[in-house]
Design brief:
alpha/beta; binds 2'-deoxycytidine-5'-monophosphate; 44% helix; 5-stranded parallel beta sheet; globular; 8 strands; Rossmann fold
C-alpha cells in the first residue's frame, strides 16, 4: 500500500445493478493500468459466507462478524481473476441472483459496511484505482480524483441482462429479471446507511441509449491528469 494513499488517483463508478459498471471499470483498468476494486464482490462474498454457514441474514451482528473475518483472495490467473472464499473458487457462485439479493439485504447493515471499509480502502495503490460499487464516491473514496454515476433505465438493464444470459446459453425470463432489478434498486436506494446515490460532484452518465464505447470515452475524459499513464 502506498504511504500517502490519498495522493493515488481513484476513479469511482457507482450506479444501480446492470448499468454496465463492471464492463466499463475493466476497460478503464486495462487502458490505464489501474487496479480494480469490485466492491460488490465483497458484499456478495460476505453474503455467500452467511448462506454457507446458515447465518441468519436478519442478524446484523452475525452478518457483520462474517464480514470481519472474511477469508478472501483475488488471484490473477491469465486474463481473468479467480475469487477465492476460504480457498475455494466461488467466482460463478457469487454471481447467482440468490447471492446478489442476499448481498443487497446485508449491505443495509452499518456494522457490516464498517467492517468492509478498510478492506476496500486498502486497494488504493499506485498507479491508481478504479472502484466499482454503490458508495465508492460518497463514502469509501470521498476524495476520489474523478467520480461517475452510471445509470440506465430498469428496462434497458433488464434487456441487457437477458442478452447476456442468452449469450451464455442460459434461460432468461425478462419479466422476472426486470422485477429483480426493480426490487434490488429499491433495496439499495432506500437503506439508511450509505444508500445508492450520486455524489454531489459526480458526473451522471445515463447510458440507456449509449454504446459501451461512448460511455468509456465519457469516463476517460474525466481523467485528464492521468493521460501520461495511458
Ligand atoms: O454490484 P453488485 O451487484 O455485485 O452488488 C451486489 C450488492 O451488494 C448490491 O445489490 C448492493 C451491495 N453493494 C453495496 O451495498 N455497496 C457497494 N459498494 C457494492 C455493492
Amino acid at each position: 500500500m502506498n504511504l500517502d494513499a490519498h495522493s493515488v488517483p481513484v476513479l469511482t463508478i457507482d450506479g444501480p445493478s446492470g448499468a454496465g459498471k463492471g464492463t466499463i471499470c475493466r476497460m478503464v483498468a486495462q487502458a490505464t493500468g489501474f487496479s480494480l476494486l469490485d466492491s460488490g464482490a465483497l458484499y456478495r462474498l460476505t453474503a455467500l459466507a452467511c448462506l454457507n454457514g446458515n447465518i441468519d441474514l436478519m442478524s446484523e451482528v452475525l452478518a457483520a462478524e462474517q464480514a470481519e473475518c472474511l477469508d478472501v483472495a483475488f488471484k490473477v490467473v491469465g486474463d481473468g481473476t479467480q475469487v477465492l472464499l476460504s480457498g475455494e473458487d466461488v467466482g460463478s457462485i457469487i454471481r447467482e441472483e440468490r447471492v446478489g439479493m442476499a448481498a443487497s439485504k446485508i449491505a443495509a447493515y452499518p456494522k457490516l459496511r464498517a467492517a468492509l471499509l478498510d478492506r476496500q480502502r486498502a486497494f488504493r495503490a499506485e498507479p491508481g484505482l478504479v472502484a466499482d460499487g454503490r458508495d465508492m464516491g460518497t463514502v469509501v473514496f470521498p476524495d476520489a480524483t474523478s467520480k461517475i454515476f452510471l445509470t440506465a433505465s430498469a428496462d434497458a438493464r433488464a434487456h441487457r441482462r437477458v442478452s447476456q444470459l442468452v449469450s451464455l446459453g442460459q434461460a432468461a425470463d425478462f419479466e422476472k429479471i426486470l422485477a429483480d432489478i426493480v426490487a434490488r434498486d429499491k433495496q439499495d436506494t432506500s437503506r439508511a446507511s450509505a444508500p445508492l446515490i450520486a455524489a454531489d460532484d459526480a458526473l451522471i452518465v445515463d447510458c440507456t441509449s449509449l454504446s459501451i464505447q461512448q460511455v468509456f470515452d465519457a469516463v476517460m475524459e474525466t481523467l485528464p491528469s492521468c493521460q501520461p499513464c495511458l
